[in-house]
Amino acid sequence: xxxxxxxxGKWVAPVNGGFETVTNPATEEVVQEIAAATxxxxxxxxxxxxRAFDKDGWPKRSGAERAKFLRAIAxxxxxxxxxxxxxxxxxxxxxxxEANWDIGDAAGxxxxxxxxxxxxxxxxxxxxxxxxxxxxxxxxxxxxxxAGAIIPWNYPLLMAAWKVAPALAAGCTVVLKPAxxxxxxxxQLAAIADDVGLPAGVLNVVTxxxxxxxxxxxxxxxxxxxAFTGSGPVGSKIMAAAARDIKRVSLELGGKSPFVVFDDAxxxxxxxWIMFGIFWNQGQVCSxxxxxxxxxxxYPQLLARLVEETRRIRIGNGMDEGVLLGPLVSRRQHEQVxxxxxxxxxxxxxxxxxxxxPEGFDKGYYLQxxxxxxxxxxxxxxxxxxxxxxxxxRPFKTxxxxxxxxxxxxFGLAAAxxxxxxxxxxxxxxxxxxxxxxxxxxxxxxTEAPWGGYKESGIGRELGRWGLDNYLETxxxxxxxxxxxxxxxxx
Length: 491
Ligand code: NAD
Fold this sequence. Notes:
The protein is of the alpha/beta class. It has 2 domains: 5-253 and 457-477, Aldehyde Dehydrogenase, Chain A, domain 1; 258-439, 3-Layer(aba) Sandwich (Aldehyde Dehydrogenase, Chain A, domain 2), CATH 3.40.309.10. It is built from 15 helices and 22 strands. The strands form 6 sheets. It has a 7-stranded mixed sheet with strand order 14-15-16-13-12-18-19, sandwiched between helices. The longest helix has 28 residues, at 96-123. It binds nicotinamide-adenine-dinucleotide. The site of nicotinamide-adenine-dinucleotide has 26 residues, from helix 7 and helix 8. Nicotinamide-adenine-dinucleotide binds next to helix 7 and helix 8.
């Protein structure tokens, strides 16, 4: 099966006719061929988005009108929940219950931003108090223009929703490029937008390689705003491209997030949150708490329980009942994570459990959930994002030491702390240099709350009202209300 591009409200074949294969990571079988867009296709998509923005009036519609489309898309996603969740498993490898969470959250994201679009009608204009009574002034929120949205493969539809929903709510039009390995559910999103009658050009979906289709989006003069989630090196390229034309830019990049567990924590709760924090979605999570710091009094027991439970995690095809860990997304990712574990071993780390392909899984990109100890602080395993089911665990003595170790990273996406002492937990939360902090848990994410990183983990915030601001400009309108001359020339 070959898919097309969704440009200007139509399904079109790529101008240069290229296609790429998409593989099921559980079976290594080809499931579909996707269109490989080139510069010519991206140009058509950007022109369609430009026309929808500049001439066809998408930004001129009221927030309430745009909200109707967003709610219809949310409903469309819910109506196809089973089909889309299954596609996500086939394409990404994640277990079906997790795919179902993602699809539910994606629908919820469209509903949430429908509400914010309506609020823009009421609160999009703010009167400003001025010290000079001869003037009135107001600040008006307006959409930035055409947004180029480029997303990764770990939460394919959800990452699309995090960008497309606030952009459309704000009144922007969008050219979306999903990751080449997981484009199938973004194409479903386009089909739903088409079904609900979203005006032509408001959402365009171009599939294909990052270095070709993605690069063409970031270089296109017709794009006003770049919204990117992905790796740091590509984030740097995007920021450089944005700098050339002074495009607006928001970046959600990687992390190496710490999880500090104090002696007074409940050991069973700690084990569950540590496992969830690094093994859900096969550890392919930007906010994964991959560096676990455990206070020395609890360390031996907690490590033993963590290893025991990690060995029990059921591995398998994400479609199978009871599976908690599916395959990694691609051969490339599988090879990279195995290489990272081998490098950790070579640097002196101990593999407490896991560390390779699970027995009985000769096909598919499967990897055992892995716990590393004795990881040198200057080794890549401790410092770099592995983006797989691999956790480094280390003891600490004092709160001060834990905070210093936690913050000793060029990343600052997320951090977590677990303690029964609320005052201490709040103190540590305040000391973390990270954009997202969890207390007594790790990973739960809510559409209403801001999401984004400090330091090299990114720029800007998605989700909540902050996510809408990503797609808005603020215009000042100041009026001179006096009949008297200004007095500079006419005295
Ligand atoms: P990636 O940076 O390789 O790719 C991300 C997207 O960028 C893909 O769509 C890709 O095709 C595109 N791309 C690649 N080269 C490009 C170029 N030159 N110009 C324009 N687009 C280009 O990242 P990935 O491997 O797909 O995803 C994994 C990374 O994403 C991890 O580092 C992870 O931490 C990060 N991530 C961050 C968040 C977050 O919210 N902070 C969420 C998910 C993933």
